[in-house]
Amino acid sequence: MRILLVEDEEGVIRFITKGLSEEGFTVDSCPTAESALQQIETQKYDLLILDISLPKMNGFQFLSIFRKKEKLVPVLVLTAKDTLNDKKQGFELQCDDYLTKPFHFEELLMRIRALLRRHIKESKVVEIGNLRLDIGSFKVFIDDRPVSLTKKEFALLRYFMANEGHVISRTQILNHVWQEPYNIGSNVVDATVKSLRKKIYIQGNSFKISSVYGIGYILQDEQSL
Length: 225
Fold this sequence. Notes:
Layout: E1 2-6, H1 10-22, E2 26-30, H2 33-42, E3 47-50, H3 59-69, E4 75-79, H4 84-92, E5 97-100, H5 105-122, E6 125-128, E7 131-134, E8 139-142, E9 145-147, H6 151-162, E10 168-169, H7 170-178, H8 188-200, E11 207-212, E12 216-221
Parallel strand pairs: 1-2, 1-3, 3-4, 4-5
Antiparallel strand pairs: 6-7, 7-8, 8-9, 10-12, 11-12
């Protein structure tokens, strides 16, 4: 998952970038709203973290322009502006969450993951690298080539894509995809992952489902590593 951080304080940039990178995210940063507007013209992002007190154009002005270009990308406002009027203005300009400084990194991370889960759940089409999953039509494409999956394989792939870059345990997969508790003697998860891998494997793919010994699996877009 790629995140754009629009922030002008070097210490905050280093702190957030280091923390999110360790959690598997790719983070780009822009110190001004003007440079951020240029950045989004050439790069797509899964989420924006936006400060309000920026030099020249402020964060509210940026958000107003950004929402005319991108209706669906989640925006988390991260700012020292903590009045009710500030928060009201942010939500009226269609930010998705509002967190005030100072903040705990763990809370920022929880909010980011919640926004991404909600965004993917609401999105009809999810893309990672050259892999595209259309939730509405129950179809999967790799480089525009259709791939036929069973219902469980489709649900499993959708769950992997919603948690891109994060290790998912077999217990989590069973609870979410099969909606039943983990049976240590069952290999249904491993068997379904094996079948899914065979169907979506093409040489040159930008994404990969890897095993994590003793835990579970992780889907990663290798282009963003």
